[in-house]
Amino acid sequence: MLTYRVRNLLKRVALQHTRGRCGISVSTIHLDQVRTLLQLCVDRHYISPGQADRESFQHGTACCYGPLGMELRRNLLDQWWDSMSRSTAQVFGISTVCSSQHIGTHGQEQLKIIEVESLNQILNQQELSKDQILQEMHMLLQRSTSLRTNFLQAALEQYVPSLELVNRKLPFGLAESGVCFQSSDGSGCPAEVTQTSLVWFCSPKTSSQWLDHWARQRLKWWKKFASSPSDFSSSDVPEEELDGTASRAVRIVYSFPWGQEPLETLWNRGDSELLQTHKGVRSKLQCRDGRKSVPHVVSVTGNMDRGVMAYLHNSLQQLKREDGEQKLQQRKVLKLHPVLAPVKVALDIGRGTTVELRQVCEGLLQELQDANISAWPGYLDTVPTSMEQLNTKYDEMGVLFTVVISENTLESGLLQVRSRDTTIKETMHISEIKHFLSRYISAADNM
User: Fold this and answer.
1) Which helix (H) or strand (E) holds 298?
2) What is the pairing mode between strands 172-182 and 232-236?
């Protein structure tokens, strides 16, 4: 049965589209897709029960992930960093604090942590006038810790220390990922978002070309892991939506059933924010680019929580099949890209001596773990389950391959391997499994 929050989400999505929020009415098929995906995410441990509400799902804020969802997000972040470090040798990682009394935002909206006890002490001082209370509260805000809303300011502050690392030569970039906070939109509680950030410093003459370069690279990256790449697209941000002093911006979006949502935004910010951060001292900002000019900034900011949801939606396929009684049934498969799939292989046992088969499974599991291949120990499940039920379970989990170890394995070393994508079963020697999986994942990564 659907959980209460899942049902509640569906009602609100239906109401939202009835009112024409996206300009078009949503079909029953789209609502069914949302219903199926949400319930599957809960059932297969991508999202913790009770947390699949509309705000976290649709707006791309960090919900409570289950074990598989956490692993999917980690894999996505690893691939993001690989794409940054492989793209050019001049991208360097940094790590900054998410809360501080010294986080600057230069006029942007700030989020503060205020101690309730300190606030109550001010409000309970009845002898204070209204103006005095306001003054005390203002001072409290000044002392309170700020939460970062993005990584831009920290990267701008790290620019000067990083200059010596690159011998004062352009271009170079500073990359970071982690938790940032967004304003509550009236709910009263700031939302956590797993963000990625690349802040690219380049000469003023080349900033427009670099924006185009990174826009192409980032869209290509998002499409690389997609089952349906056409759902990912990019477009220029309208001039009236440009942020601050930005001269141009590009937005990469994913087409959800309820409409397009941004995954990543690229900004050509010029040099004003960098100058403001370093109090206008041009001499320490200049680089060796022939003219010793102050670099322009191109920023690339991504929302990986929304990225996780985009890939879950994009990978879900519902295929029709005939069962043994010639009845049409629907087969749900999460066809996640091999490098993103949280579990690469599931190990199960067939007929034979249970103790000996488990020993073989444990040995193979250790071998796969040593090779950094994530494996699911299905052989530990003591509930009797048919192979058809296991295949259904693993397909919905997105497991690439299912390996069945049986009495035949004890005699000849041969076992059965089933593919998630083709459902084809083939026989393979146990000594070949690790190399087979490694080659399969590596080939998919290099496509």
Assistant:
1) strand 296-303
2) unpaired
Which pLDDT does position 100 carry in this prediction?
A: 53
> Which residues, other chains included, contact 277 with Cβ-Cβ below 8 Å and sequence gap of 6+?
104, 106, 153, 156, 157, 159
Question: What gap in Å lies between CA 84 and CA 196, rounded to an integer?
Answer: 11
In one letter, which amino acid is 23? G
What tokens does 317 get?
A: 């396929």
pLDDT one-digit tens code per residue, 123-148: 778 788 887 778 777 776 677 677 78
Give the pTM.
0.85
Please tell me the predicted confidence (pLDDT) of residue 360.
95
Residue 337 CB partners (closer than 8 Å, separation 6+): 224, 225, 226, 227, 311, 315, 444
CA distance 413 to 24: 58
- Secondary structure tally for the chain: helices H, strands E: 14, 17
Q: What is the residue whose two structure tokens read 């271009």? A: 171
Does residue 77 have a pLDDT over 90?
yes
- Binned at pLDDT 50, 70 and 90, residue 13 comes out as very low
Cα gap 130→116, rounded to integer Å: 19
In terms of C-beta distances under 8 Å and separation of at least 24 residues, what long-range contacts does 85-91 make, across chains too? Answer: 87/217, 88/173, 90/166, 90/171, 90/172, 90/173, 91/172, 91/173, 91/174, 91/175, 91/198
Q: What is the DSSP string of 153-177?
A: HHHHHHHHHHHGGGTT-S-EEEEEE
- With 90 as the cut, is the pLDDT of residue 225 above it? yes
